[in-house]
Amino acid sequence: MSDFYQDGIITNFHNLAQRELSELEYELQVFSGRNTMGLILPSLYSELEGPALDKIVDVLAQVPYLEEIVIGLDRADHEQFLHAKSFFSRLPQRHRILWNDGPRLTAIADQLSAEGLAPNEPGKGRNVWFCVGYTLASRRSSCVALHDCDIVTYDRRMLARLLYPVANPHFHYDFCKGYYARVANGKLNGRVGRLLVFPLLKSLQKVYGNSDFLDYLRSYRYPLSGEFAMRTHILNNLRIPSDWGLEIGVLSEVHRNTATNRICQVDIADNYDHKHQAMSEEDPHSGLQRMAGDITKALYRKLAIQGVPITSDSFRVLRATYYRTALDMIDAFEHDARMNGLDFDRHSEESAVELFSRVISQAGQAFSENPGDKPFVPSWNRVQSAFPDILQRLYDAVEQDNQK
């Protein structure tokens, strides 16, 4: 069942029918005859030592329709890479680990960086970018999903519902975003989404006027979710953001390259929880404060690219507008929590809004001082134009690393 809300900008699929998992997976196996499916898992080595990824791998080992799983491994030395190979060996699907800190991939990254064609900063964006390159080089998947490795409530239905809209050959969707209720342990989660992104998008419209782009972003029920799927042909021209603005950046790129009637979102979970970041009130370079800053700058850049006059004076107006809008939304969140028997800490909610309001000003100042900053890594199409054999070299390096 679907609805077209926000003037039909994005097709929205609810999780109402509660279809049997076996039925979903049977259809996906049938679809795999025409649309092969892959999965990208960006991971830190430390996540191999936690409970979430261990369970995720056990669950994925039972999934019958995946052609390939591409695992990006960050912050791992040689012994840790060998342990990762053993850790993921229980997967029956074809799987490859990108040892991003290994000598082969480091040599490739250094050559690309020398030409300004690769992310210089480590992080999820860089990890995903190299996984995308390998997926293109492998050519085994016509559609691919991506999700994080810290989902403690992971189950097979999440992946099945995420891939279904783009894998179904009778549908026309090129991109699918996952969403879910951010409720766990008897309280509302998703602070950056609830307390920054939603009121900020609304405030940006008030200050700078309506735009198709802002309407588009506001139509996503959870724009910061790390779960999405797409047809592989989109990957060639996708410019991956190199910072915490990855999710917003991907949505911006999809908006630029894809007709909105080929974009959808799907409810993938009744229950979702993952590792939570600290607010990091005293450190703007870590935790949710850094995430908020990167997301806010990404929005400023996108609006500026579209010709919106982003001036230093307007940031003061935006901050005041955001602060009032966010406080009003806290009222609604509190009422929602009370009606559903959830705990609600108004003090911590308002403290987060105060922090985010400062971030809005700080991000505005950073943008004003360096409006030409390039947060997006070049697309793989551009990289191939400079290094025509790069995908084959990346493929060979990963294959050599993964030899037994």
Describe this structure in words.
The protein has 404 residues and is of the alpha/beta class. Helix content is 49%, strand content 14%. The protein has 14 helices and 11 strands. The strands form 2 sheets. The protein has a 9-stranded mixed sheet, sandwiched between helices. A two-stranded antiparallel ribbon has the order 8-9. A hairpin with a 4-residue loop joins strand 1 and strand 2. The radius of gyration is 21 Å and the shape is globular. Residues 1-7 have low confidence and may be disordered.
- The topology string of helices and strands comes to EEHEHEHEHHEHEEEHHEHEHHHHH
Q: Residue share in helices?
A: 40-55%
Shape: globular
Secondary structure category: alpha/beta
Average residue-wise pLDDT = 90
Terminal residue distance:
47 Å
Number of helices: 14
- Proportion of beta-strand residues: 5-15%
Outline the biggest β-sheet: 9 strands, mixed
Strand order of the largest sheet: 1-2-11-7-10-6-3-4-5
Q: How many beta-strand runs?
A: 11
Radius of gyration: 21 Å
Low-confidence stretches: 1-7
